[in-house]
Amino acid sequence: MEYKDYYKILGVPRTADAAEIKRAYRKLARQYHPDKNKAKGAEDKFKEANEANDVLGDPKKREAYDQLGANWRAGERFTPPPGWSPGGFSRGGGRRAGAGFGGGAPGDANFSDFFSTLFGGAGGFDGADGGFESPPQDQRAKLAIALEDSYNGATRNITIGGRTLSVRIPKGVTAGQTIRLAGQAAHGGNLLLEIEFAPHAQFQLDGRDIQVNLPVAPWEAALGGKVPVPTLGGTVELNLPAGTQGGKKLRLKGRGLPGTTPGDEIVLIQLVTPPAKTDEEKAFYEEMKQRFEFDPRKA
Predict the structure, then answer these.
(1) Distance between CA atoms of 184 and 189, rounded to whole angstroms?
(2) Mutual orientation of helices 42-56 and 59-66 as an angle, nearest 10°?
(3) pLDDT digits (tens, 9 = 90+) for 214-268
(4) Overall pTM surpassing 0.90 (yes/no)
């Protein structure tokens, strides 16, 4: 097993304080993150930075690591001294590696044999030997979905910490609700995905209700009749009452998000007057002006 110089990996002196270590780690994590850097060896450098940060960023782990002394050089064959144990550790005292950048759990592929031997995990100490086993740690993340995903139900693939996971979106899920992926976070913890909705080109959301703006022509509003209206389930015909005014709200029952009590779709009428571009069209408006004794400011 080769000795790893975590200070050298992060590019900081052994006297570096916590802020220096954090800055160095974040710089390397951004530089070598697998989602951004596809160069050969970048993922290995990312994992090394995560591992170094997990140790040097935790005061207790760093103290135990420093007990090994500064006389070892990176790459040298290394065996812990007889009876050595990471003193001062307690179960659950560790901090998840690479918080915010998708680290892994001790003993998995994201950590070296050197780390596992010293701080627990595969081939390392267990609680009876004076080491520690990190307890399951839940992880939270946001998941932005389309309104149609909630209306129809869907399956989406997401990437967390370099892993691709399939997520089932249940019908009727609303903003703020959480989807739980058991065992998909650090140390076998749960991944908790909080639902939020991406902005929609047509609809605005209010709880389970949705609202859409519907442009109508003056003759449609005056005479009434059936007009097409977009919904999450497709276009439907709306019975527009004669004499409908701009700004009026009409309700389509059950056309919002599904649920025990489904939401509705609120249709906001927007009266659109066609421009008079020709002499004939202008004459038509002049005739309307003469025929109708109507002042909208006194209506």
Answers:
(1) 6
(2) 90
(3) 999 999 999 999 999 999 999 999 999 999 999 999 999 999 999 999 999 999 9
(4) no
Give me the residue label for tokens 């990996």. Answer: 9
The two tokens of residue 251 are 């309700």
Cα dihedral 137, 140, 145, 150 sign: positive
Residue 69: alpha-carbon gap to chain centroid: 42
Greater confidence (299 vs 142) lies with 142
245 shares its domain with 156: no
Strand partners, 239: 226
Token pair listed for 62: 């760093």
What is the reported pLDDT for 84? 59
Evaluate whether residue 241 is within a structural domain: yes
Residue 292 DSSP label: -
In a domain, 44, yes or no: yes
Helix runs in 33-100, H state only: 42-56, 59-66
